[in-house]
Write a structure and sequence with these properties.
Blueprint: E1 14-18, H1 23-34, E2 38-43, E3 52-55, H2 61-75, E4 79-82, H3 98-126, E5 129-133, H4 146-166, E6 172-178, H5 195-200, H6 204-216, E7 225-228
Parallel strand pairs: 1-2, 1-4, 2-3, 4-5, 5-6, 6-7
Helix pairs in contact: 1-6, 2-3, 3-4
The protein binds NADP nicotinamide-adenine-dinucleotide phosphate.
Length: 239
């Protein structure tokens, strides 16, 4: 039987990655570049990579829209990966301030909304993809803090609703929920993990690989949500 459907080549596709200056976003932007995509990274630091970095704060909707429209004015936009996110050291209820709560909601939830909304008209034109980087913290309680967990649960719920509405417009919307990933985000824990736990965590490249897999699926196939865990930690119930 012949193979059904043709996996779209990533080569030549224009992809925006938010949070591309570090961790999962950086690994994904690099991996997409290696696959020949034209990659544009959004972050406050910019940085350099084998892709085009843009200084853009995702909490600022006008900046986000201006930046995304400028990028898409070139060769359109085929996909967006929403990886910008943060957490706080003062994350537990005894220390969590109103400002801290607001920062996490503004960045992790509203920031993703601003990026997705700005990308959407371009994705409808290209019948493109959006991949949200949520977290297992959206799925079960853990030590990441109530504000982080609320922001990620909101993000997953938003992505599910966007998927329901936008698939009829040809936009494929997916969520990746990683467990512990060894990135600089872990340095923001009240007690950063020991080297042994970091070594047992996922590597950002593991998440990038899942992202490439999802974006490479032929249009008739769809993975709504995918959870990826470090086999030696959360897969054993150690959160
Ligand atoms: N590490 C984990 O264990 C883990 C597990 C599950 C899910 N996640 C999620 O994965 C995503 C990436 O996290 P990571 O672990 O790779 O952390 P990271 O290394 O700290 O990277 C976070 C990225 O988000 C960007 N960012 C933060 N605030 C921003 C803002 N206001 N505007 C634009 N960019 C902003 C940062 O860039 P600038 O600072 O340059 O702006 C950086 O590029 C996050 O959404 C996180 O919640 C992480």
């Amino acid at each position: 039987m012949p193979e059904r459907g043709t996996a779209p080549a990533l080569s030549g596709r224009t992809v925006i990655v938010s949070g591309a200056s570090s961790g999962i976003g950086l690994a994904t932007a690099r991996a997409l570049s290696r696959h020949g995509a034209r990659v544009h990274g959004l972050s406050r630091r910019g940085g350099d990579g084998p892709f085009n970095p843009h200084i853009c704060d995702v909490t600022q909707p006008e900046d986000v829209t201006r930046t995304i429209d400028q990028i898409a004015a070139g060769a359109g936009l085929d996909a967006v990966v929403l990886a910008a996110g943060t957490n706080l050291a003062d994350r537990h209820l005894g220390q969590l301030s109103t400002g801290g709560w607001q920062t996490l909601i503004d960045t992790n939830l509203s920031g993703a909304f601003h990026v997705f909304r700005a990308a959407l008209p371009h994705l409808r034109r290209s019948r493109g993809d959006a991949v949200f980087i949520s977290s297992v913290s959206a799925l079960w309680p853990d030590a990441s803090g109530p504000a982080y967990q609320a922001s990620k649960a909101g993000l997953t719920a938003f992505a599910r609703a966007a998927a329901l509405e936008e698939h009829r417009n040809g936009v494929r919307v997916s969520v990746i929920s990683p467990g512990l990933v060894d990135t600089p985000l872990l340095d923001r824990r009240p007690q950063p993990p020991e080297p042994a736990q970091r070594a047992a965590a996922l590597h950002p490249d593991d998440v990038a690989r899942v992202c490439i897999f999802m974006l490479s699926l032929p249009a008739h196939a769809y993975i709504p949500e995918l959870t990826i865990l470090p086999a030696a930690i959360q897969a054993l119930g150690d959160t």
